[in-house]
Amino acid sequence: MKKIEAVVRTIKIHDIQHELLEIGIPTFSIYQVQITGIHQGHEGLRNKTSDYIPKLKIEILCADKDEEKVINTIQKSGQSGEKGDGVIFSYDINKLVKIRTAETGDEALQ
What we know:
This protein is α+β, with helices and mostly antiparallel strands. About 25% of the residues lie in helices and about 30% in strands. The chain is built from three helices and six strands; from the N terminus they run E-H-E-E-E-E-H-E-H. It has helices at about 15-20, 65-80, 105-110, and strands at about 1-10, 30-35, 40, 50, 55-60, 85-90. It has a four-stranded antiparallel sheet with strand order 2-5-1-6, covered by helices on one side. The chain has a two-stranded antiparallel ribbon with strand order 3-4. A hairpin with an 8-residue loop joins strand 3 and strand 4. Helix 1 packs antiparallel against helix 2. The radius of gyration is 16 Å and the shape is elongated. The mean pLDDT is about 90.
């Protein structure tokens, strides 16, 4: 089982949501986040800090077999071609238990 996290542009969330639904991922969590850091300025210098930039963080739990499909879907539907489109992370999940039913593993994803 995998946990996929993506930090994406806020304007791309509806495209991402639509495409995830198309591949059978109807449920995920979204959080408002802000990023900052040192970015290359117009003069090519890497000493300009940016203000806080609003983004959205998506968290998805999926079966191992769906990992690449989910990552590719987020990458393609979240892409604008400009700097700052975001990043995607994937983690292994050791255990998942549904509180109400005590289902575990892939059955708990349903």
